[in-house]
Each structure stands twice: as structure tokens, then as C-alpha cells.
Sugar phosphate isomerase/epimerase (Streptomyces aidingensis), 584 residues
Amino acid sequence: MSDTNGTMSGGAGNGDPALARFSINQMTVKQLGLPALVKGCTELGVPAVGLWREPVQTYGVAAAARLVRDAGLAVTSLCRGGFFTAVDPGERARALDDNRAAIEEAATLGTGTLVLVSGGLPPGSGDLAGARERIADALAELAPYAAERGVRLAIEPLHPMYASDRCVVSTLDQALELAGRFPAEQVGVVIDTYHLWWDDRLAQGIARAGAEGRIHSFQLADWVTPLPEGVLNGRGQIGDGCVDMRWFRQRVDAATATPLPIEVELFNEALWARDGLEVLRETALRFVQHTF
Amino acid sequence: MSDTNGTMSGGAGNGDPALARFSINQMTVKQLGLPALVKGCTELGVPAVGLWREPVQTYGVAAAARLVRDAGLAVTSLCRGGFFTAVDPGERARALDDNRAAIEEAATLGTGTLVLVSGGLPPGSGDLAGARERIADALAELAPYAAERGVRLAIEPLHPMYASDRCVVSTLDQALELAGRFPAEQVGVVIDTYHLWWDDRLAQGIARAGAEGRIHSFQLADWVTPLPEGVLNGRGQIGDGCVDMRWFRQRVDAATATPLPIEVELFNEALWARDGLEVLRETALRFVQHTF
């Protein structure tokens, strides 16, 4: 779309229809405070944001909800709940309490989607299957609670390089297997390009997720190497890596009846070191250029 | 077995029957020159080594072959051929030439197995499927050439975190799909715990690989976090991470008619900084303790 729209010549602008799909995840420009983020979105014509619990809590959940609502911004997701894999009963109870709080926050913010990072292996354990079952147990407790508040849970499969310490759900197929135990309006999945791009079973997984009505969130980040130490904060700006964003968008669009909002969620030290509004503009432009 | 064998009290020793399965991959103790490695193996009762092309070439291929043969050591594999994914015809021809040389070296060294790291995405490409087809094309050229020299090609699926820059074959299923286009005595797979441990389709993949007679190499390394920058040299010593080595060994044993040798292949800066013979002893001990 950028090729045919004059407003794109100097950057993504209000006029580009592709921007109607764009949502900026707060973490991408975490150097911006919430008011600056909201102002930047309004000026650029970015219609939606994905929020994170910690900065929202710092600002105040009710105040944050008012700020984005008054600006007319949609909240496409809240990140994140999860970390369900502990064996210790006290730790499990605390995790469930924390997730109930996250569900309340999502409802207050007016988003229908809470993203879940399910948790890694407990210390000393190598039991992936057991950890996945504990995730299912937690979902069984939380999904009805969330549904009563108008919030859907979205299981995010994380790249297998995070399987031991962050998330034992490593593929879309695994996430769908877990989600499939619950009604689609209660539990679905996140399609995040960064985590899933390498998987040759992806096309059929996306089709299945769409057919089941379980694509509750769609996020973009590019894959660039070398990976940094700890492999957390090396997600590439859209277009800088090897992920075919257009392929993903077309597959998701083909699998869903209504076009979904698309979040760009980048954890990237180099982007965080730059001016936040400049990064926001660049990200909107890259989104339009590489996704449509 | 370590619990019932007196020779293990102070370290892995000649008497432990589990050691009969052990092969030390040269890269694990790359600080040792080949003569020191061979001497250490002889003294400890380690019956086999996995070799790498570069240090063998430095020593001289024929001389290396004589050294290990005279010491009575088996050579369980040569690492590595591969890097088949280039599009440029000249680059492809050079890769094939280099792999033919690797096959000759494997034959000279008396090993029946050449390990293949298949290659990542060419610069600017996001076409995983195309890259995998170019691997199949290369295998079609090389497999008969290798078979004539008594060498089997072993496709190593690498962890998905290497999919862009080292190997677009990321799962055992993918490796078996590629290998399955060729006779099992020509093309098989490597089962490496470091790359495969996270995959919930692994048990059936190992069973299938064994039933097809395609487990041409079995390698161990443990998974530890945080991963280092570049994610190459952070493989954990056996027992230091979350991989259940006994599970792997039992699955592979159940899938194969004859017990296979088991290589320990660690890329680990901390191990490389230590005395090589001490690391060799420790690795043999860990192998016996955690694999049997």
C-alpha cells in the first residue's frame, strides 16, 4: 500500500490504510512514558497500542485506561500473565493470584486479550510434559474467571531457545493443543513471527488456529543475528531480518474472517537507545512497507 | 553403572562398562593436540573419538588416521560437511567440492559417518523451503559418492536458534524427511540432545529414525542458560543442565538393534579454558553418571 499512497513519502502518515491495522507494543518504545506514547500515536495516526503491566502499574491502571480511552486508542493486548509451571503449591497459588490481577487490569484497560508466557522448567527439572500439564491446570482455573470479565487468554508459544527458562510451549501446535482443551472464546494463541518463523508446520498451524477462532493476538518482530547474550533483547526491526512479514500477514488474513490488528513488539537495546518518537515513526513505516 | 563399579569412585576408569559406549568429540577438549587427546583416551579407557576436519588437516589427515588407528581408537564421526544452501552456482560448486574432500578425509580416517551442518539462509533470503530443497539436491550428488567410499552422510538438525545462519534443518522430522529421499545406508541423521531436547515430537522421531536405520550419529550436550552472545559456545557439561540424558539413551537404544557409540560434543568457553585432560576425565565421569 505504501507504493500508492503519497503520505508515505516522508514516513508512515495518517492517510495510509495499512496503518489501520497497526498497533505499537509499548515495549518497542519503552523509553517513552505512556503520555508521550499516546501523543505520538495520535499525531501519527497509529490507532492502537499493546500495553505491559509494569509500566501501566507505575502510571496507575485506571489513569492509563482513561488516557488511552480519551485518545481514542484501542488496546490490542496486555502483556503478560503466565508463569504457571512451578511445582511448589505456594508458588502456584501466588502465580494464580497474580494472573487474576492481570485479568482485572486487562478488563480495566478495555482490552480483550491477556498474553500468557507460560513459564519454563522449574530448577532441576527436565520434565517438559509435566510442566505443560501444570499450564493446562492453571488455564482451567483462570479461563472462566477471565471470560466473566470479558478477557480471553492468549497462549504465546515462545521460540525453543526459551524452553528451559521462560516457556515450555515452543510451537504453535503445542499452544493449540493446550488451547484446544478450552472454549475458543476463552483460550487462544498468539502468533508472533519472532518465535514461529522457522517452523515448517506453521502454515497448517495458522490455518487451524484461524479455523478454530483462536488467533487472539498477532505480533511481529524480525529475526536478526548474532543473538545477544541472554537472547532476550535482540529482536530485529521489521525488514532488518529474514522473516517474511507479508507471508505471515497473508496467512493470518486468509485464516480469519475479520482483519486482526497487528502489533509490532520489539525488544532491542539499540532501538531503546534512540529517540522514542523517531523509533515509533520508523516502526510504523517499516510495518506499512514490509507487511502489506 | 557407576554406583556398582569400584573404578568410578575417583573418576571414570577403564573398568566401567558404560565407557565402552563413550566417544569424546575432539571439540570438547580442543585445547588438547591430537597426540595428547589420543594418549588421554588410551589412559582413561575411552575407546573412541569424534574428529573435526580443521585440526585433523592441521595435523595431517594420513598421520591422524595412523595415530588413532595405532592407538586402537575408533573414529565415530567426522565433523563436518554441509553448507549446501547457497544459490550462487560457483559457491554451490565449491561447497560440493569441499564435501567430496570431506568424504575422502572421512574414508581415510576410517570413520563411516560424515556429519552435515546443512547451511542457513543466503543473505537477504527468507525462503526456508527453497534452502531445504537445495540441500536435497546436494545430497543427491554426494550420497552415492560417499557410499562408494564407505561413508554415510548424517544430516544434523540444529536447534531452531540457528535456522537463519547455520542450518535450516531444525527438527528431527525435517532431517528424516530429507534423509528419507535416499537409501538409509547412504543418508541418515544425527541425534544431538542439545538441538532436539525441547521437541515434543522427539520420541516418535527417534523411534522412526531407528526403525529406518538412519541414526548414524548420537551426540550429547546439556542445555544451560543464559545463552552466550552468538549462542555457539554455551553447551553445558553433561549433568549441568535440564536435558535428561538417560531418557535419550534409552530411547535411542530401544530404537536400534545394536548399541551405538555416544559422542559428547561440547562447545564451551569455560571448559576450553581448563586443563584438557581434566575436562576429558570429568566428561567421561559425567557421561557414565548421567547417561546410564
About this structure: Chain B has one domain: 2-291. The longest helix of chain B spans residues 89-109. Chain B is about 40% helix and 15% strand.
